[in-house]
Amino acid sequence: MYQIKTYNAIAQAGLDTFTTDYAINQSDQPDAYLIRSVDLHPETLPKSLKVIARAGAGYNNVPLDRATANGTAVFNTPGSNANAVKELIVALLVIASRNLMAAANYSAKHTEADVSQRTEHDKTKFNGTELLGKTLAVIGLGHVGSLVANAALNLGMNVIGYDPYLSADAAWNIAKPVQRAATLAAAVKNADYVTVHVPKNEDTVNLIDQDELAAMPATAQLFNYSRIGIVNNAAAVAALHAGQLAHYYTDFGEPQLADDPQVTVTPHIGGSTVEAEINGATQAAKTIMTYLETGNVHAAINLPDLNVPFNAAYRFTVIHENVPNMVSQITSKLAAANLNIATMANAAKAHTAYTIIDVDDLDHQSSQQLIDALYQIPAVARVRLLIHH
């Protein structure tokens, strides 16, 4: 029986995905965490914890270094809320182009008896523009960005994309009419609207800063529905007040953005739909089960991809540091235990490596002795024995 501990409110459909081999919140020594927004940085990760799956795209609430040292695989659920974010960006494009916020605020404040005549006289203040023929720059063409780009094309917009890290698989999701810019500055040069959809890492913090804002037309409107810190908010406010940017929409509030008529802040609702929460929870549950039952890894944050058909009777998985001579040390332990390897695979990601070894014959005593021997290798963080059912 595998033990799962949940944090936050996890969609019931996700919990229902687990089979009867899994118990939910019945142990203080869980095999897996299924989380959403809980900050795990202050937490002590139990040694029993083999996997953390976050039902969402971001993972800055997970202490990756400590998880890796603990031998804990970390997964997110990329794409599970992509449609939700895309629909919100489409809505905001319409809101921005038609001045709907200002128009609605005006109507809410003017309810006098002559409201019809007054609004008829004043409505020209809120004249907007159409999206048809306007230019949208999409920075980041992954799960969300590709959907936004394609939706904007369907609205009749000209779309320019910029993504230096675009994978071949992701490129298939982008419609051919999307123009590709060689640089970020080139992407935003003639944009009426700029929207950012990139992961947060050391390369993307302050991706939109003073120079990038200066490259945009003064009439451009900027959207950050990616992560806080992707846009330098101080630089954005300075650009707004200097007349170098028309409006800034973001899902991530900070004090410096408060009470600014040129800034619209939404309360981190980009991926907050019923459907997105179900998608994220279901995807996370399936990821947990695949990893715990087979040891196979696809798109983990801290482990390399390794997918080996589980055809043998037994499987050892080893998470270890990516240092020389590890494979030979591991195989020597199996040889000392007089075990014949049926299948073996190894891969590395940055400073961490992962090894899968399948064997056909094994008894309980020798298996525990082998696990103990593998843990004696200083660079080993986690050893697991899986039985093929």
TrEMBL record:
Report the pathway entry: Amino-acid biosynthesis; L-serine biosynthesis; L-serine from 3-phospho-D-glycerate: step 1/3
Entries under InterPro entries matching the protein: ACT-like_dom_sf, ACT_dom, D-isomer_2_OHA_DH_cat_dom, D-isomer_DH_CS1, D-isomer_DH_NAD-bd, NAD(P)-bd_dom_sf
Q: Among its keywords, does the record have NAD?
A: yes
Keyword line: NAD, Oxidoreductase
Keyword Repressor among record annotations: no
Q: Which top-level group of life is the source organism from?
A: Bacteria
Top EC class of this enzyme: oxidoreductase
Q: Which residues form the signal peptide?
A: none
Substrates-to-products reaction catalysed: (2R)-3-phosphoglycerate + NAD(+) = 3-phosphooxypyruvate + NADH + H(+); (R)-2-hydroxyglutarate + NAD(+) = 2-oxoglutarate + NADH + H(+)
EC number in record:
1.1.1.399, 1.1.1.95
**Every ACT domain range:** 315-388
Coiled-coil segments: none
Under Pfam families, the record lists:
2-Hacid_dh, 2-Hacid_dh_C
Instruction: Give the family this protein belongs to, as stated in its UniProt record.
Output: Belongs to the D-isomer specific 2-hydroxyacid dehydrogenase family.
| Cross-referenced PANTHER family | FORMATE DEHYDROGENASE 1, HYDROXYPYRUVATE REDUCTASE
Per its database record, what is this protein's job? Catalyzes the reversible oxidation of 3-phospho-D-glycerate to 3-phosphonooxypyruvate, the first step of the phosphorylated L-serine biosynthesis pathway. Also catalyzes the reversible oxidation of 2-hydroxyglutarate to 2-oxoglutarate.
The protein in question is named: D-3-phosphoglycerate dehydrogenase
- Name its species: Lactiplantibacillus modestisalitolerans
